[in-house]
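Handout, page 2. Input:
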Amino acid sequence: MSRASVGRYRWLSGTSFGLLLADLICNSLFLLFYHDTLITLLIYIIQDVCLVFSLILFFLALFSTSLSQAGLVGELVHKFQWCIIVAVMYLGLSLGFHSWSLEQQWQKPKVYIWAPGMVALFTVQRVVGGVHYYLYKRAILQLSNKEFYAKKLLLVASNIKETLIQIAQKTEPIVTSLAFLMLHLTFYGNLALKIWIQDLAEKNNIN
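Output:
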């Protein structure tokens, strides 16, 4: 890994872990200010912004690797698919819980309301949040592996090789069909030539 890559990775990983810590703090603080709608709204906004930026930084970390620059984006997405899926799920659950709880607070600001559905959504959001923390931290640490910053020429060559193999696999049925057609044309052409020669010989015998 080059010095530029090391510096970029340190900045991305440090900022990503800071956003995770901010999200964890917001999850812990909102219950203390649940009766204050404005403070709760501010905490929710900070938390949602942290989640969006953490997802953006993760994709920046993916696209800064040599694999993505060589065109192997599908390989990266497949390798970190669960991290991406859980991060999107956690963001969606957080937005849903924040919207529902704020709606309940604005309707009855002085009443501490926890409907059964809200309790279930809160529980699922917290469980998915724990899984998100684990997968996200593991993915950021995995991106420090040297295999993601290998020499670009080798990766480009590998990418070209795989592309040629895919093209060959896709065009193989077409080539086979053309060869089969040429074989049939040759067979029927020879048969027609033999019939023409026989007719010509029969005409000569008659004459």
